[in-house]
């Protein structure tokens, strides 16, 4: 793996290789609950979501923080692991999932106040080997071999995003084409490595529902759209061959965004794409919808770009200070929570 293929700073954060040998007294982060810290909301927060009116953020060392007063104050959740967490999804006000390093998948049924572990990287490979060994067909041996490779690596590979359509149906995606689906709220997970048009096993950075479809994005211009009838993620052609860090729904459209300020918008489910003039050169790392027509994009340099026409045009938001952003979450139409290396803060949009 080289720095270019890992997509720069974003995945350098997410793909941390384990130590070659555990030190004396080593305790696996997957068996170590997150430590309570008064500074949790000021440390690295990678992902944000709304659980009803509650804002939930996930970050380093298993820290999960939440706010019930629009970001004025934050409390820390009970988390059974101290792995770095990178993404979170709440399809209902109470049911949520978070994912991150070491192949960890966490679930909450109390709006993010406490979490349980559903899956980790020690079990992912074994589960995939068992699944593909039970399959038949010409390519079964190929996928058994791929699953065995994941199993041999243990908890090395992270999940990089999670998205649930409802409290039962969801996907998690990650490094080297790692993708799992659940239809029962995470009680069971089904490998979908064989159901993506991703022959190079490129990293999958994001997955979201948009325009009535499900899209995933990754390295080297990879954009996938779920063919629900066939149960396969089909590759789409886009004008850019660099990394796409994310995908966002917009009014009657879908937006993909990534390195060097590149963003593209489609109004026909990804068949054609129109380049968005973002006016920035740094990587775009996060996005969110605001109201019916609004979209906000955030960059590695901390700039916020706002659209009021469904993502066709963006203008920079005037900021008192720019802080590198990894996630954004609107609070109504007047403010947004911005998360990153310096924790969480609230930024007004007017």
Layout of helices and strands:
Blueprint: H1 9-14, E1 45-51, E2 54-59, E3 64-67, E4 75-76, E5 85-89, E6 96-100, E7 105-108, E8 116-119, H2 121-133, H3 140-153, E9 159-164, E10 170-174, E11 179-182, E12 190-191, E13 204-210, E14 213-218, E15 223-227, E16 232-236, E17 244-250, E18 253-258, E19 263-266, E20 274-275, E21 284-290, E22 294-299, E23 304-307, E24 315-316, E25 325-331, E26 335-340, E27 343-348
Antiparallel strand pairs: 1-2, 2-3, 3-4, 5-6, 6-7, 7-8, 9-10, 10-11, 11-12, 13-14, 14-15, 15-16, 17-18, 18-19, 19-20, 21-22, 22-23, 23-24, 25-26, 26-27
Helix pairs in contact: 2-3
Structural class: mainly beta
Describe the oligomeric state of these chains in a short phrase.
single chain
The count of strands amounts to: 27
pLDDT averaged residue by residue: 92
SS field, number of helical segments? 3
* Beta-strand percent range: 35-45%
Order of SSEs, N→C? HEEEEEEEEHHEEEEEEEEEEEEEEEEEEE
Runs with pLDDT <50, length 5+?
Answer: 1-23
Radius of gyration: 19 Å
The biggest beta sheet reads:
4 strands, antiparallel
Termini separation (Å)? 43 Å
Shape category: globular
Helix content: under 10%
If strands are numbered along the chain, what order do they take across the biggest sheet? 1-2-3-4
């Amino acid at each position: 793996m080289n720095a270019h293929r890992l997509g720069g700073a974003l995945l350098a954060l997410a793909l941390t290789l384990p130590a070659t040998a555990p030190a004396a007294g080593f305790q696996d982060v997957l068996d170590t609950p997150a430590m309570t810290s008064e500074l949790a909301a000021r440390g690295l927060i990678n992902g944000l979501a709304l659980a009803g009116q509650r804002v939930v953020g996930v970050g380093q060392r298993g820290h999960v923080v939440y706010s019930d007063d629009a970001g004025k104050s934050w409390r820390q959740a009970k988390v059974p692991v101290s792995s770095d967490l990178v993404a979170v999804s709440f399809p209902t006000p109470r049911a949520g999932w978070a994912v991150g390093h070491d192949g960890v998948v966490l679930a909450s049924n109390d709006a993010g106040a406490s979490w349980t572990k559903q899956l980790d990287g020690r079990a992912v490979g074994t589960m995939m080997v068992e699944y593909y060994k039970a399959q038949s067909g010409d390519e079964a041996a190929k996928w058994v071999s791929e699953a065995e490779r994941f199993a041999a690596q243990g908890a090395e590979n992270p999940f990089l995003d999670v998205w649930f359509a409802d409290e039962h149906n969801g996907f998690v995606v990650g490094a080297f084409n790692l993708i799992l689906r659940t239809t029962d709220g995470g009680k069971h997970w089904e490998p979908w490595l064989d159901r993506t048009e991703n022959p190079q096993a490129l990293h999958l950075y994001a997955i979201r529902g948009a325009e009535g479809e499900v899209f995933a994005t990754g390295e080297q211009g990879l954009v996938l759209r779920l063919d629900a009838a066939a149960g396969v993620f089909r590759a789409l052609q886009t004008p850019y061959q660099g990394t796409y860090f994310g995908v966002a729904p917009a009014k009657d459209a879908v937006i993909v965004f990534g390195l060097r300020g590149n963003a593209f918008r489609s109004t026909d489910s990804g068949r054609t794409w129109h380049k968005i003039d973002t006016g920035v050169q740094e990587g775009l790392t996060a996005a969110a919808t605001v109201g019916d027509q609004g979209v906000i994009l955030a960059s590695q340099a901390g700039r916020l770009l706002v659209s009021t026409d469904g993502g066709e045009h963006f203008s920079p938001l005037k900021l008192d200070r720019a802080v590198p952003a990894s996630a954004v979450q609107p609070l109504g139409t007047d403010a947004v929570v911005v998360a990153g290396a310096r924790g969480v803060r609230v930024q007004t949009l007017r």
